[in-house]
Write a structure and sequence with these properties.
With 166 residues, this protein is an alpha/beta fold. Helices cover 34% and strands 22% of the residues. The protein has one domain: 2-Layer Sandwich (TolA/TonB C-terminal domain), CATH 3.30.2420. It is globular.
Length: 166
C-alpha cells in the first residue's frame, strides 16, 4: 500500500511539472529560410569539393562561426577549427552564397551561428592502392587550424553538422 501511494504521488508530481512547461517567449526561428532541411539541401548542392581536396583524398572537420544581420546577410566569418586549410576553401565559398538566407530572432540586430562541416572521402568498394596512399599521406601531413586562446561564444546557436561525402 505504501509503495502504491509513493508511486501515485510521483506520477502526480511529474504530471504537475510537465503542465508547468511554457514555451520560451523568444524561441529561435528556423535559422535558414526554409528550415534545416533546406539548409542541408543548399549546402549539399552548393558546396563544391575542390580539385585539391579530391587529389589529396582529404577528409576532416571544419567549424565556422559567422554573424548574420537582420536581413540575413553575413557580416563576418571565423574559422574555429579545421583539420586542414584546404578543407576551408569550399566552405567559405558556400557560406558566402548564403547571404540573405539566414533568419535571426526578431529582437536582434546581429546573431552568431556556429556551423560544423564534415567533409569525407568515400572510396569505392575496392579502393585502389594509390587512393589509400593519398588518404594516409593527407592524414600524416595535415596541419590543423586551432584556436590558441579561449573562444567567446556569447549567444551563438550551434547548427546541425553539414556532411559532405565525395
Amino acid at each position: 500500500m505504501k509503495k502504491l501511494l509513493v508511486l501515485f504521488t510521483a506520477i502526480l508530481i511529474s504530471g504537475a511539472a510537465m503542465a508547468q512547461m511554457i514555451p520560451m517567449a523568444n524561441e529561435l526561428p528556423a535559422p535558414f529560410k526554409g528550415g534545416n532541411a533546406a539548409m542541408k539541401v543548399f549546402f549539399r548542392d552548393s558546396l563544391q569539393v575542390t580539385p585539391s581536396i579530391q587529389k589529396a583524398k582529404a577528409s576532416g572537420m571544419v567549424i565556422f562561426k559567422f554573424t548574420a544581420d537582420a536581413k540575413g546577410n553575413l557580416s563576418k566569418m571565423v574559422v574555429y577549427y579545421a583539420d586542414d586549410i584546404v578543407l576551408t576553401e569550399p566552405v567559405i565559398d558556400a557560406l558566402k552564397r548564403t547571404s540573405g538566407k539566414w533568419v535571426i530572432p526578431v529582437d536582434h540586430k546581429f546573431y552568431d551561428f556556429i556551423i560544423p562541416f564534415s567533409i569525407n572521402y568515400k572510396p569505392g568498394a575496392t579502393p585502389k592502392p594509390a587512393a589509400l596512399k593519398a588518404v594516409l599521406d593527407f592524414a600524416q601531413s595535415k596541419k590543423p587550424i586551432v584556436a590558441a586562446d579561449q573562444v567567446p561564444l556569447n549567444a551563438a546557436t550551434l547548427l546541425p553538422t553539414v556532411i559532405i561525402n565525395y
